[in-house]
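1st attempt posting a full record on here, be nice pls
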Amino acid sequence: MLLKGSDMKVLVHDEFLGGKGTLTNTHFLNNEDACGAGRLFAKSMLTPGSSIGYHTHQGDFEVYYILTGKAKVNHNGTDYILEAGDSILCRNGESHSIENIGDTNLEYIAIILFDKENA
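the predicted structure (as tokens):
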């Protein structure tokens, strides 16, 4: 299956999950094509100063892989600074947020997979 960039679903969210500013998700895999594996397969972008609010994962887990920019991720109450090439995993039952603390757009791959072992 080929999905051209021009055919990818792009969703723009303001103040996502109680965060600040603007989040843009470019979906490189549609949920219906994921064979029940998960619910988010996207390149995400946060503009400078934007964030996704602190939230808990229930029944799924999420990984971020930073492509460009500088992020502050709060993972279970501990802050981490991530830059290009870094990744972080938020497991089922854990909580996190992400904020663009740089002066350029923060771009990262975000994947949310279902936790079938602990559902």
